[in-house]
Amino acid sequence: MPTNTRTEKDPLGTLDVPAEALYGVQTLRAIQNFPISGLKPLPPFVIAQVWIKKAAALTHKATGRLDPRLADAIVAAANEVLAGKHMDQFVVDPYQAGAGTSHNMNVNEVLANRANELLGGKRGEYKPVHPNDHVNMAQSTNDTIPTNIRLACLAQLSGLVTAFESLRSALAAKGREFDDIVKAGRTHLQDAMPIRLGQEFDAYAGSIERGLKRVTEAADYLRDLGIGGSAVGTGVTVEPSYPNLMIKHLKKITELDLRAGKDRVQLMQSMGDVAGFSSALKVLAIDLSKIASDLRLMVMGPRTGIDEIKLPAVQPGSSIMPGKVNPSIPEMVNQVCLQVIGLDTTVAVASEHGQLELNVMMPVIAFNVLLSTRILTNATTVFTERCVKGIEANREMCEYWVERSAALATALAPQIGYARAAELSKQSVKENILIRDLVKREHVLPDDQIDDVLDLRKMTEIGVPGGAHGAVAAG
């Protein structure tokens, strides 16, 4: 009679594995032991492990250590996964046993079973290809998972860079578009000296550019691979030619710029390079969130806020208030950035929790840093396309608020002194009168100086309002 399971054995005994599964008994134990989040491994974490297995098969074929027939079958199985097949067979929860042994064995079993099928064998028999002896040859979880994390992060880097470069370009374009619009500056959320709306957007673009540079600089450390370290970084069971051959094949397979690490023990002990990359992502998220928050402030209104810009309407804003439109995209960006900050905290603490020759917290490190990269990339793409590119300036409101700023009295200080300027600022607020009108009424300056001193555009550039003429004497 047909059966829905097959029996497999490992050092702990036997289990009935689903007949259709490409994974095997060790993966099933992980499924049973770790029903934690209901989440599956992120695709980059799967793909990077398969890259390593493919490169190892090619390396051992080249050295003659692995039968070419078996190596070719492993490579063919790996290529199927890399083409998008069998992804549902990678099933170990991100919160699993330390180091990632379960994930490593999940990949070993899937590739072994599929390789055996390609050679005419059956799932679960592991003949002639064995998951440990052949797919995992000269490898350990302890050197493959750190290598995996580096490869997976680097593989996602180009998408992240593209997304943030597009955002930077969009912000810079708005900087040029809004360069002639003078608005009220605000510090401490209080009136401050005028600034051009374009200057604000240029600054946003600059923050993104600097943050992205930090990320790419941090990513360079990830290019040093400790593959070949085996169990404790010393390379036991590994042929001397293996590390450099692995780098050669991985560079070709991944099309990434990679280097053989100089100290494989250090690269196994420390997750500092990954923590540094995660931290750079966090800093980028901090600046991104600040920009999103600024847009939410400037779009406040339309009647009871400052209403200095208009954001594209992407969805109705309320289930009860008709006509309400919210800054939905910036709100999403804020939430993503908060998540990234939290994910980085986990990466930092988990990186510190390495002991002696290994950091067993690598599964959660991998999940968090890869999730950060994914959601930052996707959120930034949406932010650029569905928000930033469609921002419009409300010139009238910008002009309205800047003329009413009590901080304009600052421009008078070089001419009349700080104390007198402060008095005028307080008086303008008390009487609800423009600084410009108050100065004229009180004959604070000659009429021919007032417009020069209170030239709003000039206040947005370096210089002394009104020049040196009439400056307060020292004393």
Give the topology.
Blueprint (H helix, E strand, L loop, with lengths): L4 E6 L2 E6 L6 H9 L9 H21 L4 H15 L18 H18 L12 H5 L5 H37 L4 E6 L2 E7 H24 L3 E2 L16 H13 L4 E2 L3 H6 L2 H27 L10 E2 L17 H25 L9 H25 L5 E2 L1 H9 L9 H4 L1 H14 L3 H8 L4 H7 L22
Parallel strand pairs: 5-6
Antiparallel strand pairs: 1-2, 3-4, 7-8
Commentary on this structure:
The chain has 475 residues and is mainly alpha-helical. Helices cover 56% and strands 7% of the residues. It has three domains: 5-137, Fumarase C, Chain B, domain 1, CATH 1.10.275; 143-396, Fumarase/aspartase (Central domain) (Fumarase C, Chain A, domain 2); 404-460, Ribonucleotide Reductase Protein R1, domain 1, CATH 1.10.40. The chain has helices at residues 25-33, 43-63, 68-82, 101-118, 131-135, 141-177, 197-220, 242-254, 264-269, 272-298, 328-352, 362-386, 395-403, 413-416, 418-431, 435-442, 447-453, and strands at 5-10, 13-18, 182-187, 190-196, 224-225, 259-260, 309-310, 392-393. Strand 5 (224-225), helix 8 (242-254) and strand 6 (259-260) form a beta-alpha-beta unit. It is elongated. The mean pLDDT is 96.
Annotation keywords:
single chain, 475 residues, mainly alpha, Fumarase C, Chain B, domain 1, Fumarase C, Chain A, domain 2, Ribonucleotide Reductase Protein R1, domain 1, 3 domains, two-stranded antiparallel sheet, 17 helices
Task: State which percent range the strand residues make up.
Answer: 5-15%
How is the biggest beta sheet arranged?
2 strands, antiparallel
CATH homolog superfamily of the largest domain: Fumarase/aspartase (Central domain)
Intertermini distance: 106 Å
- CATH topology assignment of the largest domain: Fumarase C, Chain A, domain 2
Radius of gyration: 31 Å
The first-level CATH class of the largest domain is given as: Mainly Alpha
Number of helices: 17
Q: SSE string, helix = H, strand = E?
A: EEHHHHHHEEHEHEHHEHHEHHHHH
Question: Which runs of at least 5 residues are low in confidence (pLDDT < 50)?
Answer: none
From the spread of the alpha carbons, the general shape counts as elongated
Category by helix and strand content: mainly alpha
Number of strands: 8
Secondary-structure arrangement, i.e. CATH architecture of the largest domain: Up-down Bundle
Percent in helix: 55-70%
Could you give the order of strands across the largest sheet? 1-2
Total domain modules: 3
Average of per-residue pLDDT values:
96
